[in-house]
Amino acid sequence: MTIIKKISTLGIFCFFLVPVSFAGRGWENYQAQEIKWVDTTGKKDSVEIIIDPKQGFKDLFVTPSIGNGIYSEELNVNAVSFVQDYIEKFGKTMEDMKSWGKPYFDMMDEILTQHGLPKELKYLAVIESHLKASVRSWAGAVGPWQFMPNTARNFGLRVGRTYDERTDYFKSTHAASRYLTQLFALYGDWLLVIAAYNGGPGNVNYAIKKSGSHDFWSLEKYLPLESRNHVKKFIATHYIMEKQGGVTTFTKEEIGQRLLVQNTNKEIPGTKMQPITGRYNSLVIAKQISFDIVLFNSMNPDFDKQIGLNGKYDLRLPDDKMDLFIAKKYTILEECMRILLQPTTNDRP
Predict the structure, then answer these.
(1) Alpha-carbon torsion angle 124, 130, 134, 138, nearest 10
(2) Are 204 and 226 in contact (CB under 8 A)?
(3) 78: closest CA among 297, 240, 229?
(4) Mind listing the pLDDT tens digit for each residue in 6-27?
(5) Of 45, 38, 62, residue with least CA distance to 167
(6) Alpha-carbon gap, residue 272 to 285, rounded angstroms
(7) Residue 133 class from Cβ within 10 Å (0-12 exposed, 13-18 middle, 19+ buried)?
(8) What digits encode the pLDDT tens for the residues 240-260?
(9) Across the strands, what pairs with 312?
């Protein structure tokens, strides 16, 4: 009996050591060509026993070195094999891009921030086009953000045979920001947003329906291979460029759970803490900085209660959202005060 138990235990252990492999990795499958004019006719529209729920969530993540000097802090195990392979193939190319691509990244950072979006979303342009304005996909998508003609027009870009604003870095980044904002309003989860940006909301909605879940790692098998690999390419690129993950590389649930299992007094990578004073309102802050209210409450437990009792709070937000909050602080406080001073039904004669 003892020998049988040992063999069973060893078998289970070995099962979890088997690496996951993915097909269709990297840019080698991406067909693009330099163009002088644009044809607008293209179309693209185990069983697990968990005693401690928090410990079970922690076990979803691993923290080994994954190459190129990067440690995969809280990288979902479903992405590890893909990310390792991607770093091995494209790590040097992307490290070089940090230098020559800086002017483009700086411009995109500013525009994404204006739209209240995480700056790391600029890495979508990296995996879409390698930051090249003149590339055209086999399906007819053009520019650094790889817009199809109809989608480009829907978000304010002019597309014609002799003039195509999809190749304009500035205008196409504004258009991409509007599209990303719309997708986040639909899903509230950045991994689903990235999947929808690549394959369209229809494919994501189908995967949600088939899987019965809004969790990317649960529904990915119902997505087209290109779309699910697109998400993993984005995660890998983020790790190469930032040396760590962030709010755009985790599911909505993962972000909330990460915050629950960490002591809020400790440093949380990718976030900042700022003492604030005044009668702020969580809903107003979340609206003004385009941040999901559930994630806001996870980062800032009992915010409205504590700010109401004490008039102060140590606010925690992702880095880019904190920068936006600071920039709009007085506007946010003014709106909060208007709501606070607005008479209630019981106050009216």
Answers:
(1) -80
(2) no
(3) 229
(4) 444 444 443 333 333 333 333 3
(5) 38
(6) 15
(7) middle
(8) 998 888 889 988 877 766 665
(9) 277
